[in-house]
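Anyone up for a design puzzle?
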């Protein structure tokens, strides 16, 4: 999906869910998201903060999460280059028990953790599918973000995700 299609997806989301524009702009987990120059990342629309804030709106959170996921994953095997910038906001939101659709956020974080794993250069099939690590610096940057937010990952409640999912997040954060 190119940037124009991603912008159109956000516009459709706002047209279908105009109440998303009323989502809280003061949540501490999202402090600084408006200052990121999202459009400077290849394939990333400028309106990412709209979706991040909409994750806090009970009535639209799951749809905002779906649209954000579609935008932040270029395909099933590749994250957008802006994922390391989005990741701290998602981790902090997932750590807040008041955030709606936390389990959806956690599922997204598990996918990021899985796609952040290094790809063995000698494994031709993996390189063919996921590309070389040196061509995807977002993987290492995401691993760094998980490590920086290890305290948040350590506090995520059991029961919202599978044991395997929790283990994957803990591994990405360097807790195991």
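Challenge accepted. My sequence:
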């Amino acid at each position: 999906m190119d940037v124009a299609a991603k912008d159109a997806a956000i516009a459709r989301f706002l047209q279908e869910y105009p109440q998303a524009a009323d989502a809280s702009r003061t949540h501490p987990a999202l402090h600084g998201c408006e200052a990121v120059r999202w459009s400077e990342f290849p394939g990333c629309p400028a309106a990412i903060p709209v979706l991040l804030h909409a994750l806090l709106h009970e009535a639209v959170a799951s749809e905002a999460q779906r649209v954000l996921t579609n935008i932040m994953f270029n395909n099933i095997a590749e994250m957008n280059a802006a994922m390391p910038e989005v990741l701290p906001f998602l981790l902090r939101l997932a750590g807040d028990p008041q955030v709606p659709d936390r389990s959806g956020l956690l599922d997204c974080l598990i996918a990021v953790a899985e796609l952040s794993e290094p790809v063995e250069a000698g494994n031709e099939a993996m390189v063919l599918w996921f590309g070389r690590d040196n061509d995807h610096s977002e993987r290492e940057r995401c691993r760094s973000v998980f490590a920086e937010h290890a305290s948040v990952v350590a506090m995520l409640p059991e029961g919202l995700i599978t044991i395997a999912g929790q283990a994957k997040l803990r591994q990405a954060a360097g807790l195991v």
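A detail worth pointing out: The first helix runs from residue 3 to 16.
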